[in-house]
Every structure is written in C-alpha cells, then in structure tokens.
C-alpha cells in the first residue's frame, strides 16, 4: 500500500470529505478527494495497469510540520509500505519555520524508517511571485526545497524533485510558472498547482519510480 502525506489541493474536482484524519490545536483536518491531483492520477494509473497496489491519501492541507510530526501515529498504518511525504510550505509563515521543518521532517522520516516503511520525499512546485511574496511569507519555497533535498540525501531516501522538474520544464518551453499553474475549476491561488502542473508532477513521479 502507498500512503500519501500531502493533500493534493489545487486541482479540479478536489474537495474535502467528512472523514476526519486528526484534530489538533483547535483545527480539524479532513481527508481530501482529488482525482486530478498527482496522487489521484497515480491511483488511476495503478488500476489501469493492473498493478496490485492501493493508494490512501492522508494529507492534511494547511498543517504545519510540527502537527504532522505530533500526530504521525494518526497518519500511518501498519499496512502501508511506501509513504510519500510533502511538507514545509506552511512553515514559511512561522518565525523559526525552516528550523522547525528540518527537525520535524527528519523525525517523521526517521520514525517511518524505524517502523519499516519505505519513504519518499517530494519537493513542492514553484509558485507565482505574488503568492511567494505575501506579507506572511517569512521564508520562501526554494528554502523549503533545499531542506527537503538535504534530508533526502542525508537519509539516503528517494526524492521526487518536483521543483527542479517544473523549473527545467519552464526553461525548456520558455514559459513562467504563471503560464501553467492556473486551470479551469481549480483553486487558482498561484500556490496550489492546477491540473496541468499536477499532471507534470505525476509524470515526474512515474519517471523516478520507473513504473
């Protein structure tokens, strides 16, 4: 079984269910359905190719890394084998956010490995300039990416580097992220990628996993 610790918000046909994952610090985090997200496309790909592997998403949109760390037991199961983790963008809003991200992500990865799980870290995609420089952004996406890359390297685990993949795609096609991050019936906030970028993330995942 593949477990996904990233919500997949931004794509079309994406919505929260009433299935509570955990409640912490006065906030309830519910499971999301997102068939056009990268993990939704992965789930369909596995079915279409008769690959005997199920996908369960327990991503918590809006959660900080300390919450993922604190409530990790509610996010994983003894049945999961491979866990995909994408975290850190929300920590950009916290005063010591990057220090917290490094500590919490390392602990999450170590706990998963110690519990016999294969772990794969994912980097986020670029966001548009206006979103990247909101007044509450103390840190920026490239700093989050750098920390995730270092943790993947130090722990010798798989990294799906979406940030690099999308940046290389943009350079090749002579585009900017603004050209592809928006889409019909999508969130369109300049941060959460719409369907086109979600598909690129899925393609990058398949490429790295070689499935």
TrEMBL record:
Note the superkingdom of the native organism.
Answer: Bacteria
Q: Return the Pfam families for the record.
A: Lipase_GDSL_2
InterPro entries linked: SGNH_hydro, SGNH_hydro_sf
List, for all copies, the residue spans of the domain called SGNH hydrolase-type esterase. 21-194
The protein, known as = SGNH hydrolase-type esterase domain-containing protein
Q: What species does this protein belong to?
A: Lacrimispora amygdalina
């Amino acid at each position: 079984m593949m477990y996904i610790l990233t919500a997949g918000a931004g794509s079309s046909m994406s919505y929260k269910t009433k299935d509570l994952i955990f409640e912490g610090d006065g906030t309830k985090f519910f499971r999301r359905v997102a068939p056009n997200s990268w993990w939704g496309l992965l789930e369909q790909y596995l079915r279409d190719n008769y690959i005997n592997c199920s996908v369960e998403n327990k991503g918590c949109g809006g959660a900080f890394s300390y919450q993922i760390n604190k409530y990790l037991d509610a996010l994983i199961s003894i049945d999961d084998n491979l866990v995909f983790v994408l975290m850190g963008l929300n920590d950009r809003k916290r005063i010591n956010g990057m220090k917290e991200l490094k500590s919490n992500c390392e602990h999450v990865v170590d706990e998963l490995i110690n519990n016999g799980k294969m772990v794969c870290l994912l980097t986020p995609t670029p966001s548009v300039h206006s979103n990247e420089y909101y007044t509450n952004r103390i840190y920026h996406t490239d700093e989050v990416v750098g920390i995730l890359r270092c943790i993947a390297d130090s722990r010798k685990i798989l990294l799906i580097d979406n940030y690099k993949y999308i940046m290389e795609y943009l350079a090749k096609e002579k585009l900017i992220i603004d050209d592809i991050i928006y889409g019909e019936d999508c969130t369109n906030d300049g941060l959460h990628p719409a369907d086109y970028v979600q598909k690129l993330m899925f393609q990058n995942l398949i490429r790295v996993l070689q499935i």
